[in-house]
Task: structure prediction
Amino acid sequence: MRRLLFALLLCCGFGLSHAAEPQLVRVYTNHGSFVIELDAARAPLTVANFLSYVRAGHYSGTVFHRVIANFVAQAGGYDEKFVEKPNQSPVPNESGNGLSNRRGTVGLARTGDPHSGTAQFYLNLGDNAGLDPQTSRWGYAVFGKVIEGMTVVDEIGAVETGPAGPFEGDVPLKPVIIEKIEELK
Result:
């Protein structure tokens, strides 16, 4: 019940009031920066969740801990020592919003539980329609797209990877660090 009330408050208090104007964030990394346009009209709960982490400074000092060329680059959950950062409550899955996991889009990472998305997000390095919802299963919610700096994203997607920390593979051998994410007005 609390989760439903929280979702309604976010939708009514945040998503609807700002849906008309584009919401942009700049992601600063040690490889350069890129700009994401957030789609609060189609993913209001996911965008509100993401922005709450941005405003709290959660992403500063986190790393891209999973990079698979031509697939995804995932970040937002771990610091440079692979210590998981604290999370807020998960948000309901908004994968049925009409947005597709195409190259340059941004989605909310989750576990096998479709409603487990918190702070981690991924950048689609290729077209990944297999991550979209199907009639038989939930998909992964897209909530934005890279509108500037895709060359930086491609550079991140091409780094050499291997095992590191608690992960068996796909971790950049030289850390790709998010220095900060800031809202653009």
Residues 1-19 have pLDDT under 50 and may be disordered. The chain has one domain: 2-184. The two ends are 34 Å apart (CA to CA).
